[in-house]
Amino acid sequence: MSEEMKKVEQGSITPEERTLGLVCVLLQFLTVVGPLIVWLIKKDESAYLNALGKETINFQLTLLILYVICGVLTIIVVGALLAPLVGLFGLVMIIVAAVKANEGIIYRYPFCFRFLK
Questions:
Q1: 3-state helix/strand/coil string of the chain
Q2: What does the buried/exposed string (b/e) look like for 31-46 if buried means 16 or more CB atoms within 10 Å of the residue's CB?
Q3: What is the pLDDT of residues 58-105, one digit of tens each?
Q4: Does residue 50 carry a pLDDT above 90?
Q5: Displacement of CA 75 from its chain's centroid (Å)
Q6: For residue 100, what are the CA distances in angstroms to 15, 25, 26, 73, 78?
Q7: Is 101:21 a contact under the CB 8 Å cutoff?
Q8: How many Cα atoms sit within 13 Å of 40 on the Cβ side?
Q9: d(CA 59, CA 108)
Q10: CB < 8 Å & 24+ apart, contacts of 33-42
Q11: How many whole angstroms from its chain centre is CA 61?
């Protein structure tokens, strides 16, 4: 468990942090820029939002890489079949993460590359 996660567990999460965490996760439906803005603005003020923002951005970068791989694999038709599955996976994981963020929990996305640590 990372140092930030331990700090989040020890401290209490305010309702404002929960709301901003939920907004950060739900902004993924639009673009990676939304969670990035929330993270950049609030990362120094809240250990919870710092950890949640990093996790959210890492997941979006992972999805981007998977979509690029699918795009390359469309040459042999496999990518066209995999892209909808990647989209469905992303949709389900964002919904799960939004529910967890509303509870004040940092959801660790499965199969996610952790670029930001």
A1: CCHHHHHHHHCCCCHHHHHHHHHHHHHHHCCCHHHHHHHHHHCCCCHHHHHHHHHHHHHHHHHHHHHHHHHHHHHHCHHHHHHHHHHHHHHHHHHHHHHHHHCCCCCCCCCCCCCCC
A2: ebebbbebbeebbeeb
A3: 999 999 999 999 999 999 888 889 999 999 999 999 999 999 999 999
A4: yes
A5: 29
A6: 14, 10, 12, 33, 33
A7: yes
A8: 6
A9: 9
A10: 35/60
A11: 9
7, amino acid identity: K
Residue type, 65: I
Amino acid, res. 19: T
Residues in the chain: 117
